[in-house]
């Protein structure tokens, strides 16, 4: 026992000595030798992280769930969220993580008096907060990303949408003024992945976002919106041509820098072949022989052909250049794609006198919104996503790639700007003529997708030519928002146009108007989240989720009778 006591005392003394010897070096040990000292951080290094994450996340919305709401895309596998708006609580932590990095960028650039970097940070702050409030409604704003300052901000209060939109507009005005100085002091080449350090281009981007948000609040703050849009138009400083669009290119070197769902990083090709054109969009494109149709979508691999001489309702097997391929009901995407590129035509025949269903015999076929079983559509012989549906169009080959060309994350565009001004002109605001801006919007979109040479023929079509209606403006703006469908959704929410219809399997007979607050906020910031939820307007479509439902109206559409 004495020996154990002596050993215990010796160990205790040793521990005390070690603690004492280390105490003076504790701060040194806790320093990360690979970390960046905030006091000396280079703001250039922070910019691409914020820009890249914001651009990717925005694209993934406009090419994902929101593309389903805006009826650009339908899925025939994993389809409930896209096609039926079957959304649960949706977390916004990714967007607030961007804001934390962006706040650091702003603080550091302010310390260094780098006007360009301050402007970038304010513009991206406005863009990110805009997405958050557009999607969810009220949200932490004035108390957001301040958790390092005080414990009271660890559970931040939610600000009203009105406060957030006004703050966004104020920040964008400040950013525009900073860019107007053309002072790019401190910028290092290669770190601005949107505009390569050009203050004038950033000012156009900031002012274009101002146009977007003035129009967003035009029903709630009409006087401010009118004055703001007229002032920006008078300045002439906003995005006017596709070359000025706020875009991020996809370099495609790794899966982290490739187009979402690109075949190059999807060996099973399930992500690529799951996406189908929505019939709503396809109908509009086909009706007017829209030149963007062939850029975005591919013809069906196997076209249905009516054949009254057929002895059975439908061919069991496909035909290759008219010859039946005995025993072959389908081919894989890889085989089909290679054969079609050689000019080979595949068909299946059916007898319209014997077949009791409905078949779409067009060269391009989309999926109607909200089907209960979209993988069965158009008599697909391989439901359940065994292989692609050979009787429905896929996305064009461009979307198989992972980089370059037309594949860009587009945050703001010249087409959007022109359509905003067309709508403003139609309201009677002093921004020129609606027809001029409408025509520019159509032309800019065609040029963006490489078919600008067909503008004259396209704009002359009766279904395209400007006809003095808001419906015509919003239809073309909706088409032009391909892969940026969030803007189409928010326009629909504000105007009810285009007049979308929910599909047969939608939980409610109308389209949703917001995302549901996520579990993190509801569970861990309950008091503030509940206060925001209680400010939502319950509708007859809110359903079992009650106020925190995708069919409950946020402030931006309360009292407007829109979109339904």
TrEMBL record:
Keywords: Lipoprotein, Signal. It holds the Pfam family SusD-like_2. SUPFAM superfamilies: TPR-like. Coiled coil: none annotated. The keyword Signal applies. Residues 1-22 form the signal peptide. This is SusD/RagB family nutrient-binding outer membrane lipoprotein. The lineage of its organism: Bacteria, Pseudomonadati, Bacteroidota, Cytophagia, Cytophagales.
